[in-house]
């Protein structure tokens, strides 16, 4: 049956469809961490709608809140409503104490990219400047400006320059140093380099309207910023009076073990973008939380029809209740610690695994050709990562492949995943790596 749906899709949908090419199943139903396909096969979902379903599929408490709201009303533009008031206040209250009184919320539309676009617009208007600094390997979305801020030149190259004045700097990954330096021999670091360029009259970059960064680059292959890099970027941006936007679209809402990942880095951003898991059940919503000192844009400065999804607001409030009552953040930290033990052990058993990295329940297993080393061309490595994904699917596990040239197997399980289910995930990966390596 799955094959039939895939064939129907191929004859009626765009060639740009992506997931069905690597995960060729038709989904019939889903509950908790489980997806059932049209043929009755059951999979553990360690992709969760690209990091959206923080409580798995259809959490009953959240689903009930959505049903209740559905009986009340659905669409509210940006007018105040009870569901929205509750959502806004409860979500602002999730910010750390120093920030929660300073920050305001803006509803940007349904998607993460909408939030990124709004963040850039806000900072440009507030500073009167136009350039933006982003980081190599970053991903911020696929609308024009969000894509322009994305480090992946493959996609961008095909549509030409989308937003002028974007400058890319190396992101804090010593293992991925663009100059090939090693931490033990590097006399400076990427953040110092950023500061020198921004303050050098010959540096070529005028003072930007914003610096935008992910605390853990997700699509870029699960690359966490180092603590020093994050702190230094914060210091530099503060010193030069540049708003720092932290894109928490993927890392936010508990994914890394704290509500926002920046909390673990001890920094305070000026603007936070959140989206994916805000509703906890996959209903689209995207917000900015930003320092009220930046709140100088005019009424209507960033509009959009779909900014008043009451179902998402009701779900987002119910999800916060569940997260507190079911101690979900503690679970993320415990299950994250479990993966931090199991995945290096997995790496020890499989030659194709070059590195494992992660924070909370966001993990990447980076592959490299064991006979050619990490700097070899990636075609065979990409093929191997896809083979692992395919073998895992056949054994009942849905996972993502991403990162540079799609060489990183990525895990984004639900945040309420159990110890046993994590064991199941790693067990399947173990067999998938064995099978894929032939
Ligand atoms: N920012 C980050 C960090 C993301 O991971 C993503 C989506 N993967 C986006 C922005 C874009 O979100 P959306 O696909 O909802 O536009």
- The whole-angstrom Rg is 21 Å
Q: Please, what is the average pLDDT?
A: 94
Number of domains: 2
Query: What's the CATH topology label of the largest domain?
Result: Aspartate Aminotransferase, domain 2
Structural class: alpha/beta
The profile of the biggest β sheet is: 7 strands, mixed
Under CATH, the homologous superfamily of the largest domain reads Type I PLP-dependent aspartate aminotransferase-like (Major domain)
Beta-strand fraction estimate? 15-25%
> What is bound: which ligands?
4'-deoxy-4'-aminopyridoxal-5'-phosphate
Tally of strands: 17
Total helices: the number is 15
The end-to-end distance, rounded to whole angstroms, is 29 Å
- What is the CATH class of the largest domain? Alpha Beta
Widest sheet: strand ordering = 4-12-11-10-7-5-6
Which runs of at least 5 residues are low in confidence (pLDDT < 50)?
none
Shape-level CATH architecture of the largest domain: 3-Layer(aba) Sandwich
Cofactor: pyridoxal 5'-phosphate
Pathway: Amine and polyamine biosynthesis; ectoine biosynthesis; L-ectoine from L-aspartate 4-semialdehyde: step 1/3
Protein name: Diaminobutyrate--2-oxoglutarate transaminase
Keywords: Aminotransferase, Pyridoxal phosphate, Transferase
Describe the structure.
The chain is α/β, with parallel strands linked by helices and 438 residues long. It folds into 2 domains: 2-58 and 327-436, Aspartate Aminotransferase, domain 1; 63-325, Aspartate Aminotransferase, domain 2, CATH 3.40.640. The protein is 38% helix and 16% strand. A 7-stranded mixed sheet has the order 4-12-11-10-7-5-6, sandwiched between helices. α13 runs parallel beside α15 (419-436) and α14 crosses α15 (419-436). It is globular, with a radius of gyration of 21 Å. The protein binds 4'-deoxy-4'-aminopyridoxal-5'-phosphate. Residues 50, 111-113, 116, 139-141, 214, 218-219, 247, 249-250, 275 line the site of 4'-deoxy-4'-aminopyridoxal-5'-phosphate (PMP).
